[in-house]
Write a structure and sequence with these properties.
With 570 residues, the chain is α/β, with parallel strands linked by helices. The protein is 39% helix and 16% strand. Bound molecules: adenosine-5'-diphosphate, the ligand Cc1ncc(Cc2csc(CCOP(=O)(O)OP(=O)(O)O)c2C)c(N)n1 and magnesium ion (MG).
């Protein structure tokens, strides 16, 4: 504090907190330890919400999905070296999925790292982070903290969002400077993610191509969900009359029950469409790279692509009408262009899509009514489908193989940004980090539908969920193993197959260990009632859903990606 003789002073601890608060950061997802424990105590004391995890990967995943949900960078803080490394998978996953997050890690002093003198948790973290994220910065002087935080925020959310690493050597925190000078060094970011308008020529070109379509299709990707341009997207779909196909985390942008949704006719529309409009969706492995039998006759497709990243165009196949800009600006420009004259797609196309969709829904319906016990995936997911339909506000977290692939098609979503899953990388372990941040950021109930293997990657965070008393209901689809629970050791030896777990285990007891609710269910009806009760109570709940170990298939729907040996028999 200031006295007449001495000017007021501030320090690195305070400047980091001030810089984050000045830029609207409210929540920190962390694992404490040297050199950030005091920083976290101070941050909490100054009104930031500090959510403390059991493993940095989960804190990082929480920050990443917080970024996806809020369009502000989620902030994860870790200790140096091992804590930093544990956060890297989440930082890389955020960058791959275009989620804005900032990983802030304490680190050793440069002079010790550069001479490799063996400090406590010594590592050249900045160099290691750089290839895995969108941008990486280090701060050596307290007066640079303000500009560094501003740079990190803008790097995370501008253009294609992604992960940013900010390296803070321990001695930075205790550096002292004049408080007034410190205040002047802070930077409040202006227009961090500016609208990026498409060129009029590119809009005209895209409209020309679209007008010539006989069987057009709109594919909505998680970029379209992230953009929060929901009304503009709805207008494009409904004004154009074009069928739409939502990618996993774009489900709910328009309800899956929307008359123009082609979700239940995915194979047909990908094969038969002639002009495809990609809206914030990459033509990567999830869309078979825009090639092969998924897409019908070679050369039978014309692609229009809306994306904020110009280099995404032609990544896999030629894009005849690239629209580079932000989703809202591009979609609104297209809709405005249609107002000057637009003919909806031929009824034979929209009719054929609807007919196929209705037929597929009718074929699936009886499977979802299955009351078999032990449950199969369809019966269990039929019950959860009803819960989500009755509770459209709830957020749904989903990971696993069969548990993921079947839930994606069976559980309809009714509102935007409610389905949060493994995304582009198909990474296991996002579950509990996503569930915590979904509850913290939205204040809404969260339903996490987890394969038993997937749950195991982040399961220790049930204690975190209990500690903050979060409204999270975890359903573990317990089929005793990875993909199935039936694999056996081919030698007949005492070791179990590497693909199976302790049979008939009770994950619900884990939640009870920390004061949450644990329930064991063996029928879809019991599952429906237990989840409904959990959502009503808002209490941390884990439901152990017993699934028939025979019910699954190897790797869910992507078994074809597995290499097979040509020389080994059987
Ligand atoms: N605000 C935005 N405006 C335009 N494009 C965006 C925006 N945010 C993200 N994107 C783009 O959206 C795309 C998301 O693609 P992807 O992650 O493959 O979605 P999905 O897996 O749902 O198909 C990325 O290429 C990214 O550059
Ligand atoms: C970080 C990481 N390590 C391993 C893997 C490989 C994998 C993909 S899916 C999966 C778990 C499937 O078993 P689960 O029980 O969850 O689901 P179900 O089919 O319903 O039984 C693994 C281990 C991935 N994707 N990421
Ligand atoms: Mg399993």
């Amino acid at each position: 504090a200031a006295t007449d003789a001495e000017p007021a002073l501030t320090d690195g601890f305070q400047l980091v907190i001030d810089a984050l608060k000045l830029n609207g950061i409210e929540n920190l997802y962390v694992v404490p330890g040297i050199p950030i424990s005091d920083l976290l105590r101070m941050a909490q004391g100054e009104g930031l919400r500090v959510i403390s995890f059991r493993h940095e990967q989960n804190a990082g995943n929480a920050a990443a999905i917080a970024g996806f949900l809020t369009k502000k960078p989620g902030v994860c803080m870790t200790v140096s070296a091992p804590g930093f490394l544990n956060g890297l998978t989440a930082l890389a996953n955020a960058t791959t999925n275009c989620f804005p997050m900032i990983l802030i890690s304490g680190s050793s002093e440069r002079e010790i790292v550069d001479l490799q003198q063996g400090d406590y948790e010594e590592m050249d973290q900045l160099a290691i982070a750089k290839p895995l994220c969108k941008a990486a910065f280090r701060v050596l002087h307290a007066q640079d903290i303000g500009i560094a935080v501003a740079r990190a925020i803008r790097a995370a959310v501008s253009g294609r969002p992604g992960g940013v690493y900010l390296d803070l050597p321990a001695k930075l925190f205790s550096q002292v400077m004049d408080a007034a000078e410190g205040a002047r060094s802070l930077v409040k970011v202006v227009d961090a993610a500016p609208a990026q308008l498409p060129s009029p020529d590119s809009v005209a070109r895209a409209l020309e191509v679209l007008k010539g379509a006989k069987r057009p299709l709109i594919i909505l990707g998680k970029g379209a969900a992230y953009a929060q341009a929901d009304e503009a997207v709805r207008e494009l779909v409904e004004k154009s009359g074009i069928p739409f196909l939502p990618m996993s985390m774009a489900k709910g942008l328009l309800p899956d029950t929307h008359p123009q949704s082609a979700g239940a006719a995915r194979s047909m529309v990908l094969k038969d469409a002639d002009v495809v409009v990609l809206v914030g969706a990459r033509l990567n492995w999830l869309l078979s790279h825009g090639k092969g039998k998924t897409w019908g006759e070679p050369g039978s497709k014309t692609f229009i692509q809306i994306d904020i990243e110009p280099r995404e165009m032609d990544s896999n196949v030629a894009i005849v009408a690239p629209l580079v800009g932000d989703i809202g600006s591009c979609v609104s420009a297209l809709t405005a262009g249609m107002a000057k004259g637009w003919t909806p797609p031929p009824a034979e196309w929209t009719g054929a899509v609807s007919a196929r969709k209705e037929a597929n829904i009718a074929k699936m319906a009886p499977k979802l009514m299955s009351n078999a016990s032990p449950m199969n995936f369809h019966g269990a997911l039929g019950a959860l489908r009803r819960v989500v339909q009755e509770r459209p506000e709830a957020l749904l977290v989903n990971e696993g193989a069969n548990t993921l692939d079947l839930a994606r098609g069976i559980i309809d979503m009714h509102q935007p940004r409610k389905r949060l899953d493994v995304g582009t990388w198909g990474v296991m372990g996002i579950g509990m980090g996503f569930a915590v941040a979904a509850a913290v950021e939205s204040g809404k109930p969260v339903l996490a539908v987890e394969g038993d293997s997937a749950f195991g990657f982040s399961g220790m965070e049930v204690e975190t969920i209990c500690r903050y008393n979060l409204p999270v209901c975890i359903v573990v689809f317990n089929n005793n193993g990875i993909y199935k629970g039936t694999d056996v050791n081919p030698t007949g030896g005492s070791d179990p197959s590497p693909m199976v777990f302790v049979p008939d285990s009770r994950y619900d007891k884990m939640m009870e260990a920390f004061g949450g609710e644990g329930v064991n269910v063996t029928t879809p009806d019991e599952l429906y009632r237990a989840v409904s009760a959990a959502m009503d109570s808002g209490r941390p709940t884990l439901i152990n859903a017993v699934i028939d170990p025979n019910a699954g298939s190897e790797s869910g729907n992507i078994g074809s990606l597995n290499p097979t040996s040509a020389v080994r028999k059987g």
